[in-house]
Amino acid sequence: MSRPWLWMAPAALLATGLLGSAPVRAADQGPTGRGQEIVTGAAGPGLGHLDRAVLAVMRHKGIPGATLAIAKDGKLVLARGYGLANRRTGQPVRPTSLFNLASCSKPITAAVLKPRGARADPRLNDISVRQLLHHAGGFSRDGARKDGPEPLKRFVRRGLRRPLAYDPGERTQYSNFGFLVLRLVVAEVAGEAYEKYTVDKVLCPMGITDMMLDPLARGYVRGEVRRYRLGGGKMFPGGRGPIRGGGGSWLASSVDAVRFLCALDGSRGKPALSQQSVKQMLSRLPTARPHQDGSYNGLGWDVVKPRDGGFLYHKNGGVPGIATYLEHRPDGVNWALFFNASPGADSAEKAGAWRRPIQEAIEKTEQWPDVDLFRKYRRSR
Fold first, then answer.
1. How many folded domains does the chain comprise?
2. What is the model's pLDDT at position 22?
3. Alpha helices in the chain (DSSP H)
4. Which candidate, 224, 222, 247, places its Cα nearest to that of 235?
5. For the purposes of burial, counting CB atoms within 10 Å of the CB of 353, is it exposed (0-12), middle (13-18) or buried (19 or more)?
6. Range(s) of the domain holding residue 54
7. CATH of the domain at 116
8. pTM for this one?
9. 3-class SS at 174?
């Protein structure tokens, strides 16, 4: 891999010009069941309880479709689609179906950007890449939005004119806007578009060829699941967002999301990142205090928690009609769980409650089958 990640100076100096219950077997399985009971894909023996856990959550909450992929020690042991990708056509969710990753896109940006360290100088011109990756750049959550989409550079330029909410590095405060700034940093230093650089230099060497940025204005892309609001079955339109021209979240299958996790931890061979880079990704911002349970946010990860033998780290995401989750466990289990529904802004329930029974079923799994399904699930555009 040539220049698999970028070593950065402060971000503002680089962003030039911006300030102006189913059968389980290891072979391929066609759709079984009807509606929410449809199961596609494959799994090694002894994992039927995971299918049952997902289907139970979908029935209880009325979720149209979901996908779950799990790797143990670098081997894909389960690759499943559940329910419907499109209610109108009856198309089932498959392990290769594309989901909008929403904020689960952030670890991908973090894998591209590996800073040497953070600078503690105050205010805009001294914000470092590491501070942005830790959500500690001083920016608000979403920047200065306006009616209608606009090009990414213009959107960021307007946001940079606003006063910072706090001194950079003072604390962590979740910021989607900060990660949009990072995309422009990648493009400026790499000398090419963020998506092209990330695909060519980071994802393809990981064996991932089907991830893409959501083109937004084009609506749904081929192979992408439809997004639904829970209750009433309202379908959200594809694409849409504040950024025009391919500035949305990444689209990916659960299988490729797990490929990404395995490439980070090196469980499928040579790690995609150096030991020093992984250490940085899982480190705590020096100026930020850990939570009471000892966890903290890493570079692109909501939670990093040191445990005996390694780290637990995970990320969740959501846009209207989508709920996503990625997790690495220190026992060698990497998994991705996506739903094509969201609770809605008026709901007190969060999508985290949906994944909890599935998370518990994974944690209680004592034996994992010795199969590897990665070669079976490679989607072609």
1. 1
2. 37
3. 11-14, 48-61, 106-112, 129-133, 152-160, 176-190, 194-198, 254-265, 275-281, 352-363
4. 224
5. exposed
6. 1-381
7. 3.40.710.10
8. 0.85
9. coil
